[in-house]
Design brief:
The structure holds two protein chains of two kinds. Chain A is 39% helix and 12% strand. By secondary structure, chain A is an alpha/beta fold. Chain B contains three helices and seven strands; from the N terminus they run βββαβαβαββ. By secondary structure, chain B is α/β, with parallel strands linked by helices. The chains are: A alpha/beta, B alpha/beta. β10 (355-356) of chain A pairs antiparallel with β1 of chain B, so a sheet runs across the interface.
């Protein structure tokens, strides 16, 4: 039998995830070493070097609270692209300092603060003699962002649906990536670039922005900032065009991202289309892909579809529950379950079918 | 011939992702018509070469499975729709033999086959969804159709 020889450089360092709430793309810096040693040792003599780290760990399982940077505010202060990069660089450093302070504070808690968790093996890597830091060091310190599209509008008068905007977007995201990678190495903690879901921040940050700068066309004329690096929801693109743009930015995120497309409810009759779309997203290396389909259910007769009218087309009832997915969550009626900013965002969403009238 | 809209990535009209063309003009005036505005042959814009190139640009894409032609009535005598749609379908089939064509018509397959003006369409289309919309037979649960009298007919099995 031929002996399999695996060289050190062939061992995995980056694990692509398949699923998860905010996908993780990076590898846990505090597990990678023992994982490598485990693989070498299993191959040479069938034993484990460290049975705690029996598998490679992704970073961001257990997010030690993200800090999100509101990009449009920085763009207003900076005014020019060059000044923006300088200012953002400083803010990323500040975010790192905040995260370290918070991490140290959390680590100063005794295990007794969450007794059940620590005594029942639910916290990966926990060694009582080392305190809870032994477990928490495997979590992620996430540096997030919101409103790339609006920041680009302020700086360049276009967003990243324009090649000029996309080019500068890559420079911005590369700065996040480079800095987080350096922090990860320097502090031996899992710093990562996070494409913040911002359920409430999308709305509250816009309120604050308007108080200071008022309503600026294409920047603050909606009731919410666009999430992370997303293409604004109102652009009438095909799903393929949206994936083409966002897939050029998702690779910069090591601590979580998601790409959505909005489809018509009739996709239920068209599994071929769904398969085509998912394959396309996977071919473009979208780490976490989600298809949103409106689900309206008549509470009288049970008819389920995308019901545009106020009444059920089958029985005429006006008692219709409207499920929508907002930043990963599918919650009750979106008209009551979400904040006003996110309700507006749902209403502004263009179906990604590329209609040209 | 005028058209109301082109949908570049349509999932509601036919299998897979498709480019859809909604032509204008239909004399049938079925009660409950889903696209009443398109009954007028003047609705929308002229189907010129620029519009045709838009369709070809989508058919060039790998993910695009084919063309769907809806209306209005693609086989209407209004604005010579029938002649123009047959010519378009021929051009698409010649240029893109690997892509399929779906067409929706208020005429039945038998009616279209019996007329010298329309029978050539069967050389080019792969799927015909036929028959008028009958509001008494409206059925929301059947894919790609509005009422239960309408049929999905396929080349090779039905024509």
């Amino acid at each position: 039998m031929k002996k399999i020889i695996i060289k050190q450089e062939q061992l995995p360092t980056e694990i692509m995830s398949t699923m998860g709430c905010r996908t993780q793309n990076g590898a846990d810096i505090n597990a990678v070493e023992s994982f490598r040693k485990n693989i070498s040792q299993v191959i040479s003599n069938g034993t484990l070097y460290d049975d705690v780290t029996s598998a490679a760990r992704k970073d961001s399982r257990g997010n030690i609270c993200p800090v999100s940077i509101i990009l449009p505010t920085l763009a207003m202060e900076a005014k020019s692209p060059a000044a923006f990069i300088d200012l953002l660089s400083k803010k990323i450093e500040e975010a790192k300092d905040q995260l370290i302070e918070r991490f140290n504070w959390i680590c100063s808690q005794p295990a007794a603060a969450a007794k059940f968790m620590y005594e029942n093996g639910t916290m990966y890597g926990y060694k009582p003699e080392e305190g809870i830091r032994s477990a928490l060091k495997h979590g992620t310190l996430a540096i997030g962002q919101i409103g790339l599209a609006e920041a680009l509008q302020i700086l360049l008068k276009c967003d990243h649906t324009d090649p000029k905007g996309l080019e500068f977007a890559k420079i911005i995201e590369d700065l996040f990536k480079t800095k987080c990678a350096a922090f990860k190495k320097a502090y031996k903690l899992n710093f990562g670039v996070y494409y913040t879901p911002a359920e409430n921040l999308a709305y509250t940050s816009m309120k604050k922005f308007r108080e200071k700068y008022g309503v600026i066309p294409k920047v603050s004329d909606h009731d919410y900032f666009t999430n992370s690096i997303h293409v604004p929801v109102w652009h009438k693109l095909t799903p393929f065009e949206k994936i083409d743009i966002e897939s050029q930015l998702t690779g910069y995120s090591s601590a979580g991202c998601i790409t959505y497309v909005e489809l018509d409810a009739s996709v239920k009759n068209n599994i071929d289309a769904m398969e085509e779309l998912v394959n396309y997203a996977m071919d473009k290396d979208i780490p976490y892909f989600a298809v949103n389909v409106p689900i309206d259910t008549c509470q009288e007769c049970g008819y389920q579809d995308d019901i545009a009218a106020d009444i059920c087309p089958k029985c005429g009832s006006d008692d219709i529950q409207r499920l929508r997915r907002v930043t990963g969550y599918i919650t009750g009626n979106y008209t009551t379950a979400f904040n006003p900013g996110k309700q507006k965002e749902v209403e502004d969403r263009a179906k990604h079918n590329g209609i040209e009238a | 011939m005028n058209y109301g809209s082109i949908i570049k990535a349509d999932i509601a009209n036919g299998e897979g992702f498709r480019v859809s063309l909604f032509v204008s003009g239909c004399k049938r005036n079925c009660p409950g018509c889903f696209n009443k505005q398109a009954q007028s042959e003047c609705f929308g814009k002229s189907f010129d070469d620029e519009a045709k190139q838009k369709i070809f640009a989508e058919l060039d894409k790998e993910w695009c499975r084919g063309l769907s032609v809806l209306g209005g009535e693609p086989m209407s005598v209004l604005s010579d729709n029938r002649k123009q749609v047959i010519a378009l379908c021929k051009e698409v089939k010649d240029k893109y033999p690997g892509k399929d064509i779906w067409m929706w018509s208020g005429y039945t397959m038998e009616e279209l086959q019996a007329s010298d003006d329309t029978k050539d369409i069967f050389k080019y289309i792969d799927v015909l969804v036929d028959g008028p919309f009958v509001i008494e037979k409206k059925d929301l649960s059947i894919p790609f159709r509005g009422s239960s009298n309408q049929r999905i007919l396929r080349k090779g099995t039905d024509f």
